[in-house]
Amino acid sequence: MISYDVAIGKITAFAEQVASGLEVEQAPLLEALDRVAAEDVRGPDGQQGMLPRWDNSAMDGICVNAAQIAADRTKVTSAVGEDGGSGVRIRSLGRVVAGDAPPTFTPDMLSRSTGVIVCYEIMTGAPIPNGNFFDSVIKIEDLRRTRLARQIEEDVEPEESLFTLPVTTHIRHGQHVRRAGEDIPAKHLLLSKGTQITPGHIALLASFGVLDIRVHRRPRIAIITTGKELTPTTSASPNTSSLAAGRIFDTNGPYLFSTLLSAHLLSASDITLLSSRNDSPEHFEELILSHVLGSETKYDVVISTGAVSMGVHDFVPGAVRRLGFEVGFHHLGIKPGHPALFATLQKGGRQGGVAFFALPGNPGAVAATERFLVRPYLRALLGLPREEPIFATLLQPSHIRKKVGTRNWLKARFVRCASDEDRLGVEVLDKIQGSGMMRGLAEGDCYVEILEKVEGVEVGETVRCWPFWGAGRE
Asked: Has residue 251 got a pLDDT over 60?
């Protein structure tokens, strides 16, 4: 029996060894969510590689020259003081809205406007006029808007608009102006190789007109559930009352299918539930030979459930060896999931290889071993980093005891601490920890992990937690 850390070392080493078997393909931008980038993506050089691409307004209002405003404000204040009725009068030269090309303001236009404070009406996102004169924006709420209201009602041309800025209102040079390149500079690294693509990446790439992305092919997964007692839940209109004595519906297949999707690493088309007609080593080997080892091999990972321990009917370990797989480990120091097996097969004449995870049959053990054995393999295969635990305060039960030498995962749920809502707490679910129990998978949302050297944990201690469905996107 080996430790969990040793098992993970074997799993990730094989994943890194065969990762080249996941070919690179082009994914349309709108289909790239959750895919893993196969190369760096940089923005272009020059103005087209910047965000924003030009100086623009962050507010609806008017764009002005801050120094001109300040000088006129000083004159007004000297003449009449800072009373409520005094202000700087500003004349509009026109209006700029988002989508317009920036107008150009030249020195001769300024000379024609001697003694008059000038501006352009400007809307959010509109470009600041060219000419390096207008450098600040005054939001419309800071202006006396009587003239603007009449302009709207009477459809007066923008050139006739007049605004008054109260002398009590101060402006800062550069206020409410978004500078070219302040978000993204030219030639910026937009997406790094090995990054799992998020909606944020898609928005950023779309802003530069990227239409498709080179990504790693997703691994293809085959799921085989064993057990003479199983009735497939995929059969048409299953009815519990129709089950024969001793029969149960297959839950492991649907659970594995859905939990693999929840990790944001695969699509539904990447996962296949292979039909298991009977519970025999012959049929099991036939499935592997025809679907995994045949000439039309298409699966990168095989996951089986059940028949993996040491009982009379536990035929999977022997079948795996007869099929030519090399067993990396069988039985490890974890609970639940102690009997789990990991085996590998290098395919001749084909890049990469096949990983085989034989999981126990109890649903609680299936859930834990998928989360802590299969999931790390898939992440490593795609070049993603290992996940990190979330730390929380144990709120219940008052204490937990375990056998030293095994790593335990207990079904739990996150809660907020009543005494400190900013502190994350966790409650281990009571009386539903058995490996054959499924209720905890529905009522919980995480595992509390207790490491091998730890004998017990007391309420109030900080514990390691892992969300059921994974950390999700990076």
From this structure: yes
d(CA 272, CA 287): 12
Burial class (CB within 10 angstroms; exposed 0-12, middle 13-18, buried 19+) of 392: buried
- Rounded Cα distance between 430 and 411, Å, is 9
pLDDT at position 439 over 80? yes
Task: Give the span between the Cα atoms of 456 and 135, in whole angstroms.
Answer: 65
Look at residue 294 and tell me whether its pLDDT is greater than 80: no
Average pLDDT, the chain: 88
Q: Which residues pair with 390 in a beta bridge?
A: 465
More confident residue, 114 or 473: 114
Q: What is the pTM of this model?
A: 0.86
- So what's the pLDDT on residue 79? 54
The pLDDT score that the predictor gives to residue 235 is 57
Q: What is the pLDDT of residues 167-199, one digit of tens each?
A: 888 899 999 999 999 999 999 999 999 999 999
Pairwise CA distance, residues 88 & 117, whole Å: 8
Residue 257's pLDDT is what?
A: 95
Neighbouring residues of 243: CB distance < 8 A, sequence distance ≥ 6: 231, 249
CA angle 396, 399, 405 (to 5 degrees): 120
Q: HEC profile for the chain? A: CECHHHHHHHHHHHHHHHHHHCCEEEEEHHHCCCCEECCCEECCCCHHHCECCCCEECCCEEEECHHHHHHHHHHHHHHHCCCCCCEEEEEEEEEECCCCCCCECCHHHHHHCCCCEEEEEECCCCECCECCCCCEEEEHHHCECHHHHHHHHHCCCHHHCEEEEECCCCCCCCCCEECCCCCECCCCEEECCCCECCHHHHHHHHCCCCCEEEEECCCCEEEEECCCCEECCCCCCCCHHHCCCCCEECCHHHHHHHHHHHCCCCCHHHEEECCCCCCCHHHHHHHHHHHCCCCCCCCCEEEEECCCCCCCCCCHHHHHHHCCCEEEEECECEECCCCCEEEEEECCCCCCEEEEEEECCCHHHHHHHHHHHHHHHHHHHCCCCCCCCEEEEEEECCEEECCCCCEEEEEEEEEEECCEEEEEEEEECCCCCCCCCCHHHHHCCEEEEECCCCCEEECCCEEEEEECCCCCCC
Instruction: Specify the pLDDT at position 389.
Output: 96
* Cβ atoms of residues 389 and 446 within 8 Å: no
pLDDT 10s digits, 128-154: 999 999 999 999 999 986 555 455 456
